[in-house]
C-alpha cells in the first residue's frame, strides 16, 4: 500500500495477478484531482513491471470497518476498475 503520494490517500489491490492482471482501487486525497493513468505512471519507478496495475479505479472512499480497516469482502460489490 502506498499512501500520501501522487495525490492518492490509499491504494488497494483487489485481485492480484487474476489472469496475469493487477486490479486496483485508489482513494483520492482530499482536494486532489487524480486520473487513473497517473497511478501506473507513479508506480513504474517503484514496482516491478508485472506489479503495475492494468486496471485502476479512483474512488472517494472504500468500505471500512469500525476500526478503519478496509472491508475486503465488501470490495467485491464495487464495479471492476476500468482499463488504463
Task: Describe the protein.
- There is one protein chain.
- The mean pLDDT is 76.
- This protein has 84 residues and is an alpha+beta fold.
- The chain has two helices and four strands.
- 15% of the residues are buried.
- The longest helix has 6 residues, at 38-43.
- Helices cover 12% and strands 23% of the residues.
- The chain has helices at residues 38-43, 72-75, and strands spanning 8-13, 23-28, 55-59, 82-83.
- Strand 2 (23-28), helix 1 (38-43) and strand 3 form a beta-alpha-beta unit.
Q: What is the strand and helix layout of this fold?
A:
Blueprint: E1 8-13, E2 23-28, H1 38-43, E3 55-59, H2 72-75, E4 82-83
User: Percent helix among the residues?
Assistant: 10-25%
Taken as a percent bin, the fraction of beta residues is 15-25%
Question: What strand line-up does the widest sheet have?
Answer: 1-2-3-4
What value does the average pLDDT take? 76
Query: What is the terminal-to-terminal distance?
Result: 19 Å
Structural class: alpha+beta
